[in-house]
């Protein structure tokens, strides 16, 4: 009978060993509602790193909410500020960074993340995204239309960009801890 390999699920030593090999920020990308912020907080805690949500940092820098920035200045202005904030967060050396759904679509932001971080695409089926995004009405791109239709279109448009991330994990409609474990395992394999 052979011994099974150590599982990272509940083994703090194995997780610490993986965390020690992570020398760049883990940057979570994917559509709105995939759980980047919730998963990111849990992932950072398990890896003993800090967590920052890029959308929160953008709101703080602008002293406006994301919907207010979109309404007052438009998406192009928001994306420019988003790129600058993400660059600052990476430069500051944060451990886990959750980005907004459109951040990785911007060529400059995507190149920056791919060059200086560990990009992890959290993917999810559209029905789950519709359910999750319905919990808050703070999503400017979902205003004034059918969320299922909009999310289906965004998923199709953005998938080729997200696919450039070296790591892809599917978030099922279950506990976020499952997604966290899948990310740690995928990063371990990628490293």
Describe how the helices and strands are arranged:
Elements: H1 12-21, E1 26-29, H2 36-47, E2 51-53, H3 54-62, H4 66-73, H5 75-91, E3 96-98, H6 107-116, E4 118-123, H7 126-133, H8 147-162, E5 167-170, H9 176-190
Helix pairs in contact: 2-9, 3-5, 4-5, 5-6, 7-8
**Unreliable runs:** 1-7
The fraction of residues assigned to DSSP E strands is 5-15%
| N-to-C order of helices and strands | HEHEHHHEHEHHEH
Count, helices: 9
CATH class: Alpha Beta
The CATH H-level homologous superfamily = P-loop containing nucleotide triphosphate hydrolases
At CATH level 2, the architecture is 3-Layer(aba) Sandwich
What is the structural class?
alpha/beta
> Largest sheet at a glance?
5 strands, parallel
Query: Taking Cα atoms only, what radius of gyration do you get, to the nearest Å?
Result: 17 Å
- At the third CATH level, what is the topology name? Rossmann fold
- Helicity level, as a percent range? 40-55%
By DSSP, the count of extended strands is 5
Give the N-to-C terminal Cα separation: 29 Å
Strand order of the largest sheet: 2-3-1-4-5
Mean pLDDT: 88
Number of structurally distinct domains: 1
Shape: globular
